[in-house]
Design a protein that fits this description.
alpha+beta; 5 strands; about 25% strand; globular
Length: about 160
Amino acid sequence: MNDVVIRKARAADAGRLNKALRHLSDDIGDSHGATADMLARAGFGDHPVFRALVAEQDGAVVGATLYSPVFSTVRASAGVYVSDLWVSPAARGQGLGRRLLKAVAEDAGEVWAASYLKLAVYDDNAGAQAFYDRLGFAATEGETILTLDETGLAALKDDRGTR
């Protein structure tokens, strides 16, 4: 994997980035609602909400990651949330996932002074859990991830939510 180059994604990479993330969605059985245009606007517009890295080998994308800043008052520091990490089947088991996370940590450290990485892994994805365990990731005791979906968010905005 020494011939793999990891670099920051640019707006021109939106299509290739979306294709890599679609592979991730397929690999884990998720639906994939993003489009290249959505990624271009969200990640490379006037107010980017994420940063991304692509790993290339011989011109082909063999890995990608998408991440965003977070801030914790408990930790009293900025961190980075890795929402997506994909390595092509042919490149797995060669350290590329670790290299991508290292690059995320370095970039997030420079840009946001991030002192920790955070991510979520599906309960039924034993392979991913084993990978993250080997890197030293641990479940956060007493923490449950909650999501307010589109309908709930609209209700909150319209003040129809539960009080």
